[in-house]
């Protein structure tokens, strides 16, 4: 870890240039020739990335940032805080510590936090930053996490793991066995050290694929930030044999939308109807969950079609996603589509044979405006267009 960048003048320079063009700065002469210019530029770029994602770090003095990639790959503060709200206990060991954002929030819930990071420089950076952030209940281990678990030889209330994909796994179907550490292979060993394990995976992991590799899964959390799925969390408890609950959360600036259902519950049946007064589009976390029939039953609203995943009702309800007032429903044919030619509208397709780009080109529809058009299929298998105004 290069502490020369903690020089007050350099720190001031980094703060003053946060948000500036790195390309333009790189062409300038280094005002601090005693320190590597690339290192300073990296701090500026990483701090810029941290402004929205990691405000606690951004607003603190003498923070050292790792590579821009490490900042991009780390949890955001909002998702880390949500994660920490799900579990509790006295001790937790993070086997894939990284930049330590998750551990910062775990430290507020647990008496003892262990941060394992095989990268010596990154481990030193996190230790330094935690001192600046006044985190006093975290211990740092710079070694392979399997060795750390073995050598410490103690029971933990929780094990947390964020496995990373091996480079040779690119292009393959994403499986946990293709990651480091290899959780499926090590699971029995982990259960010798803790009865509760929380595994974070990238959103592109297929839920059924994760379940095929794991055992004793109690809850699966799908976490979205501003309607973009950021992570899946598999919550495992040793010897658990009950049903699996899918829990979704979409975290936005002013609220968190939540929804949950029992996976594989055969008693959930959707009801169907033609478009009524209002239209609902589930948030991305629910879309990832696949719980489409459950949405219909829970909120007592009708689906337009088995495969459309759009919902409708006569009365407006509070819904975890976008809500619209349906102004007009037209059939998708040349005669009725004349009403949209040369108009401006936001277009969404759900269970529809044509792509948005082709629809725009074919009917000369400009992007944007206050009109929202959903091209979809109704319960009678007719291709229709719902012309709407957004409510939320």
Question: What would you note in describing this structure?
Answer:
It is a single chain. 31% of the residues lie in helices and 28% in strands. The chain is of the alpha/beta class and 392 residues long. The chain has three domains: 3-71, Arc Repressor Mutant, subunit A (Orthogonal Bundle); 74-262, Vaccinia Virus protein VP39 (Rossmann fold), CATH 3.40.50; 271-390. It has a nine-stranded mixed beta sheet with strand order 3-2-1-4-7-9-8-10-11, with helices on both faces. An eight-stranded mixed beta sheet has the order 12-14-15-13-16-19-18-17. Strands 5-6 form a two-stranded antiparallel sheet. Strand 10 and strand 11 form a beta hairpin. It is globular. The model has no long low-confidence stretch (mean pLDDT 94). This is Class I SAM-dependent methyltransferase. Keywords: Methyltransferase, Transferase. One of its GO terms (molecular function) is methyltransferase activity.
